[in-house]
Design goal:
CATH superfamily of the largest domain: HUPs
Number of domains: 2
Structural class: mainly alpha
Order of helices and strands: EHEHHEHHHHHEHEHHHHHH
CATH architecture of the largest domain: 3-Layer(aba) Sandwich
Bound molecules: tryptophan
Shape: elongated
Distance between the termini: 38 Å
Number of strands: 5
Largest sheet: 3 strands, parallel
């Protein structure tokens, strides 16, 4: 019997992953793989919400994202990788649960509100508006106990908890009430000093960037705008170079000494940037090595997706049988079997 608790979490396949994804989510996921039964979802249905005209791009991103995942050390032997649209039970559960989700719960979701503000009103589809509900279904389908996510996802987990409780009370006690688990650094600044590393802002360092690209990006990085000469005292706080050093430098003592020197004005920006380049490249090197391996063995990436999805399908089928029974909806699988037996 499997006594491990379950985790479900996921990402939209909309492009390459960057350092922000690592410290905000992936780092936690990697650690949790040994102690939990982990389900990692590639939410391509959800990605359609605001990329409906870019299906080809999403298809490509599914593979790229799994390649990113395997390169950082997510292991398909330990964890289950699922492509959402290959398990249409996600859509079925989302539909059934949407019957017990008041529209007001969705309307007041702060993450959704922010995202909707970035789109023009005519571009907001019903599917997009409904995505928090579909995320509830993602989490409940494998009956997850824990959902490791970035801070922006907390409202969706809160909604999931409310709906799981409501379902359990209305129909049958089927679902655990899942807990969120937030990453070490919920929002990593961009290389331009803007609040968030984000593909659309063009301020990312990608997990797949080469040594040379990292070097170029760091050399161009925003530092302390108030510092005019390398010998004048610098500010460490809110300085992206030091934020990244805090996130990735392994030797805390050395880093403290560096900060002291910077504040005194005895070390220049270029020197600090060189230290950051080495820190980031040391961090990225093992990831690059694994990527080279998986690039040479694309069948392993595809196999991880197929095996994971098959496993998820079995689990989804079981949960849906329970859900339909609890809601007194005819189990169509029985209907199909009976019909073919006529
Ligand atoms: N919304 C998440 C993102 O933007 C992806 C996601 C889909 C997810 N389903 C999920 C996260 C379920 C956690 C749990 O990346």
């Amino acid at each position: 019997m499997n006594l491990k608790q379950k985790i479900l979490t996921g990402m939209r396949p909309t492009g390459l992953l960057h350092l922000g994804h690592y410290v905000g989510a992936l780092e936690n996921w990697i650690k949790l793989q040994d102690d939990y039964e982990c389900y990692f979802l590639i939410s391509d249905y959800q990605a359609l919400g605001d990329h409906v005209n870019e299906i080809e791009k999403i298809r490509k991103s599914v593979i790229d994202m799994v390649l990113d995942w395997m390169s950082v050390g997510l292991d398909p032997k330990k964890s289950v990788f699922i492509v959402q649209s290959y398990v249409p039970e996600h859509a079925e559960l989302a539909l059934l649960l949407s019957m017990i989700i008041p529209i007001a719960y969705i309307e007041r979701n702060p993450t959704l509100k922010t995202e909707m503000n970035q789109l023009s009103k005519k571009d907001i589809s019903l599917g997009f508006f409904n995505y928090p509900a579909s995320q509830v279904a993602d989490i409940l389908l494998p009956k997850a106990h824990l959902v490791p996510v970035g801070e922006d996802q907390i409202p969706h987990i809160e909604l999931t908890r409310q709906i799981a409780r409501k379902f359990n009370k209305l129909y049958k006690d089927i679902f655990p009430i899942p807990e969120p688990l937030v990453g070490r650094i919920s929002r990593l600044v961009g290389t331009d000093g803007k609040a968030k590393m984000s593909k659309s802002l063009g301020n990312c360092i990608y997990l797949s960037d080469s040594k040379e690209t990292v070097e170029k990006k760091v050399m161009k990085m925003y530092t302390d705008p108030k510092r005019i000469h390398a010998t004048s005292p610098g500010h460490v706080k809110n300085n992206p170079v030091f934020i990244y050093l805090d996130a990735f430098h392994k030797d805390i003592k050395q880093l403290e000494e560096l900060k002291i020197k910077y504040k005194k004005g005895t070390i220049g920006d270029v020197e600090v940037k060189k230290i950051l380049i080495k820190t980031l490249n040391d961090f990225l090197d093992p990831i690059r090595k694994r990527r080279i391996y998986y690039n040479a063995h694309p069948e392993k990436v595809k196999e991880a997706i197929v095996q994971g999805t098959l496993r998820a399908k079995d689990i989804a089928r079981e949960t849906m049988k329970e859900v339909r029974k609890a809601m007194k909806i005819t189990n169509y699988e029985d209907v199909v079997i009976r019909a073919t037996n006529l």
